[in-house]
Amino acid sequence: MSDACCAPNPPSADRAYSRALAIALVLNAAMFAVELASGLAAGSASLLADAADFAGDAVNYALSLGALMLLPAWRPRIALVKGYSMAAYGLAVLGLTAWHALKGTVPEPATMGLVGALALAVNVGVAFLLFRYRSGDADMRSVWLCSRNDAIGNAAVVLAAAGVFGAGSGWPDWIVAAILSGLALGSSVTVVRQARREILAAA
User: Fold this and answer.
1) Which residue of 20, 65, 126, 178 has the fewest CB atoms within a 10 Å radius of its CB?
2) Looking at the predicted structure, is the pLDDT value of residue 58 above 60?
3) What is the CATH number of domain 8-202?
């Protein structure tokens, strides 16, 4: 393996990446509060699932900022923790969705649509900031996958709001929440596999 492959990122690249992560962290923390309050008020499983995702992403961005201050060998280990946390989130969303389905909750579609559209705008902006880092190491890739999944999830929440409005049923909300869970579980597998490969290569 060449020295270039093992070398840390150039300081200028790290500074640009750090700024992008810091912006993403602030935006995700703010949207967690907005979606948590809105999801509880509207009775929406998909909004609450997305709120949990924003919270998890805020933690992930904070971990990634911390990883930049560590030796490169520690970065895949941070990514491994994040991969497992994404899996835990996915399983938690499945449980939340089942609970709402059993209760037969019908969410308020106007709140779902408005907040979902706001969240989509935020996550598209974050994804744009992080797009250039999508092919980096396991930690960078996990950050990009989180941002990509969020944008997809937000678009799905907006569609679910339209479905709830048209059908008068909670099924569109529950289906989207289950899809968000599947995205989290699939991404966790990708991140964990790459992190393990990088840990083995470093060893």
Assistant:
1) 65
2) yes
3) 1.20.1510
